[in-house]
Specification:
26% of the residues lie in helices and 24% in strands. It has 340 residues and is an alpha/beta fold. Strands 7-6-5-8-4-1-2-3-9 form a nine-stranded mixed β-sheet, sandwiched between helices. It has a five-stranded parallel β-sheet with strand order 11-10-12-13-14. Strand 5 and strand 6 form a beta hairpin. The longest helix has 17 residues. The structure holds flavin-adenine dinucleotide. Flavin-adenine dinucleotide (FAD) binds next to helix 5, helix 6, strand 13 and helix 8.
Length: 340
């Protein structure tokens, strides 16, 4: 019989499970049912957060205390190891958050186990079949392993967040033997919310292309206006900002740039492949190396001046042949009106 442990951690509030953790819980509940496995859920950073998953009926384990309030390799790895040992885990599911991605391979090694990352689906009744993508999301592989414990890091957005009724649940506190801690976490420094344009949890991806900084029908470049329209839309909708490669590359070529864009925003073959329910592309041609990054965007729309662009040739669900400056100004005005 498999002993399945879902590793979770609290979010920035320190009291609730992170969304990615709740997604891993859903995956764990489904897989445990398929395998007839015993399910445990372990939490880093607070027992109370486990009330949200009490209705799973799983064995609940927690590691609490000041050293685990912040992410730090030594304390997090020791805590995960203690949780795995307490659950006698043969299968460990964890969300692929920065906190777990940093320590999971080390923990697997300490337990003599094996790890696979970027898992998108788990199936199989006899043996576990874990699915992941290779070669920039072009080749999908199904992985099975006999090695135990087997650690599987799940990509965010591949499962629904667990949403059972919260209840006070009996939680077993797991003691952790901490090694000497060389790293002191003095605090968190993060960009202001409106400066952080990459938002994996957003419903919508808003993509900007090189057209925003090209000469427009009046013969002029309107980079400042472009910046205002784009940031206005992000502020009003909370959408995540993506870009074509051409636009983010322009900084190095002396062309007017949008200062809030970096290569981290790039979507495509040599960029990111995010998961969002909807995507809106603006001033972007929709070439294949860009569109391959839209693989996991469910509803794709584009605004382009070019009726022959890649988007128009069957890559988007809806294409608006229109001037994005005009369309986005109108959209922002309507959103402002709605908000007021
Ligand atoms: C090996 C390789 C890897 C690559 N990887 C990536 C990648 O990861 N991501 C990526 O994005 N690209 C990638 N590329 C580059 C890709 O092929 C394209 O060159 C790039 O995506 C084009 O960017 P763009 O559509 O923004 O610019 P352009 O091709 O210049 O298109 C600009 C568009 O804006 C439109 N436009 C202009 N003004 C307006 C307006 N006012 N309103 C509406 N539309 C307007 C124009 O009609 C045009 O269609 C890669 C290329 C190679 C060879």
């Amino acid at each position: 019989m498999e002993f399945l442990l879902v590793l979770t951690h609290v979010d920035d509030t320190g009291t609730a499970l992170s969304k990615a953790s709740l997604e891993a819980v859903t995956a764990g509940v489904e897989l445990a049912a398929q395998l007839g496995a015993q399910l445990s859920i372990g939490c880093l950073g607070g027992a109370a957060a486990l009330n949200a998953v009490a209705s799973t009926g799983a064995r609940l384990l927690a590691v609490s205390g000041e050293p685990f309030a912040q992410a730090r390799y030594a304390s997090d790895a020791a805590a995960c190891e203690a949780l795995c040992r307490a659950a006698e885990a043969t299968i460990v599911l964890a969300p692929g958050t920065s906190r777990f991605t940093r320590v999971a391979a080390g923990v697997a090694h300490r337990l003599g186990g094996f790890i696979d990352t970027h898992i998108t689906a788990l199936t199989g009744a006899e043996a576990i079949e874990a699915t992941r993508w290779f070669y920039r999301q072009r080749v999908e592989a199904v992985v099975t392993r006999d090695a135990r414990p087997w650690f599987l890091l799940l990509d965010a957005g591949t499962h629904a967040a667990f949403a059972g009724a919260p209840a006070a649940a009996p939680v077993e506190q797991v003691a952790v033997e901490l090694p000497a801690l060389r790293t002191t976490v003095s605090g968190l420094r993060a960009p202001a919310q409106d400066a952080q344009t990459i938002r994996p949890d957003a419903k919508m991806l808003f993509v900007t292309g090189a057209g925003w900084t090209k000469k427009q029908p009046d013969g002029q470049i309107h980079a400042d206006l472009a910046g205002d329209l784009i940031l206005g839309f992000l502020r009003l909708t909370g959408a995540s900002l993506g870009s074509s490669k051409s636009l983010v590359d322009q900084g190095g070529e002396g062309v007017p740039v949008l200062p809030f864009l970096t290569h981290m925003n790039q979507i495509g073959q040599t960029g990111a492949t995010p998961r969002h329910a909807k995507g809106l592309s603006t001033c972007c041609h929709g070439e294949e190396p860009h569109v391959v990054g839209w693989r996991f965007i469910a509803d794709r729309r584009a605004i382009s001046l070019d009726p022959n662009c890649g988007w128009s040739r069957g890559k988007a669900d809806v294409v608006y042949i229109a001037d994005a400056f005009q369309v986005m100004a109108k959209v922002n005005a309507l959103l402002e009106e709605k908000k007021a």
